[in-house]
Design goal:
- This protein has 305 residues and is mainly beta.
- It has one domain (29-264): TolB, C-terminal domain (Neuraminidase, 6 Propeller).
- The chain is built from two helices and 23 strands.
- A five-stranded mixed β-sheet has the order 4-8-7-6-5, with no helix packed on it. Strands 13, 14, 15, 16 and 17 form a five-stranded mixed β-sheet that branches.
- A hairpin with a 5-residue loop joins strand 7 and strand 8 (106-112).
- Helix 1 (5-20) runs antiparallel to helix 2 (277-292).
């Protein structure tokens, strides 16, 4: 059976590259910021399978200021820009809204938010939502934040659950998800609640919690049909969870910090693998054989030395 020069050459190239390319893809990586310890100014990379820290070498900096910790992290769905809430040195009372370079950790200030916000999340239209903490000037309210000057607009009073607030946006159903509270699951007064907020109608719908009983969520991220989340573990750092849109909680692992925001790492452009000398020699030899007609390619054969 005759083969074309193109098909044989393509087969050889695929075989050679197959020996050079890496194996199966690693687990998806997430970025987190910490809001627990004063002086924790690190942008961490964690493994999404168990919450373990993969890299903690990126320090967050903001020119002219000392970064004490962070209370929110979100990525703009259209531009890919990373936004964060940073707590700065005294006497600055409220967190600053900044953009953040995830490679260098360099922050650029947008403005002072003028309230104690506990978390932020972008809608698919680029609206930045924020939830105020229990110690805020207007506690447990949903806001929108202007990404040009950090000014806030009151949207909706929340109120259910006690201490602890975080939010995330689900692009699949178009709803915000809000978690609040410490203590027993599904106790609106002195415990934990999980609920949806329709951004259009502002209707709040309770989502019953079941499964592992976390201790006050501090971060929430929707990804591939469910949420990643961290809590305020009494041990001093977050535990890491997967939570379905129906409220079923699964404990995945333990973290080494209190996560106050979760986003997906921007994937690096994969490098083209360098071919070894042996692989280059194989390609060259195969091409020479094809040109010299030692493989049956056609009725006419070019002359060879």
């Amino acid at each position: 059976m005759k083969a074309t020069l193109a098909s044989v050459w393509a087969s050889v190239v695929l075989v050679v590259l197959g020996t050079q390319l890496p194996g199966s893809a690693a687990a998806e990586l997430l970025l987190t910021v910490s809001g627990s310890n004063i002086g924790d100014d690190v942008l961490r990379t964690i493994d999404s399978t168990d919450g373990s820290t993969v890299d903690a070498s990126v320090t967050i900096t903001l020119a002219g200021h000392t970064v004490r910790k962070a209370t929110g992290l979100a990525r703009h769905p259209q531009t890919g820009v990373l936004y964060a809430l940073l707590r700065l040195e005294a006497p600055i009372q409220f967190p600053a809204l900044v953009t953040l370079d995830e490679v260098t950790g360099v922050a650029t200030s947008i403005g002072n938010t003028q309230d104690d916000f506990a978390g932020i999340a972008f809608g698919t239209d680029g609206t930045l939502y924020a939830v105020s903490g229990d110690g805020g000037a207007v506690p447990e309210w949903l806001y929108t934040l202007d990404i040009t000057d950090a000014s806030g607009t009151l949207v909706l009073e929340l109120g259910d659950g006690n201490d602890g607030e975080t939010i995330a946006f689900n692009p699949d159903d178009g709803l915000l998800y809000h978690a609040s509270g410490l203590g027993n699951q599904n106790n609106v007064n002195v415990g934990e609640i999980f609920e949806t907020i329709d951004p259009g109608t502002l209707v709040i719908t309770n989502v019953p919690l079941s499964g592992f009983d976390y201790e006050g969520l501090t971060s929430l991220l929707y990804r591939n049909g469910a949420f990643f989340a961290g809590d305020l573990n009494p041990g001093g750092s977050s535990r890491f969870f997967r939570i379905t849109t129906g409220g079923v909680v699964t404990h995945l692992g333990d973290m080494d910090h209190v996560a106050k925001g979760l986003v997906v790492v921007t994937p690096a452009v994969p490098a083209v693998p360098a071919l070894s000398t042996a692989m280059l020699a194989l390609l060259a030899g195969t091409l020479l054989l094809l040109i010299c007609g030692r493989m049956t390619l056609s009725a006419r054969r070019p002359s060879c030395p």
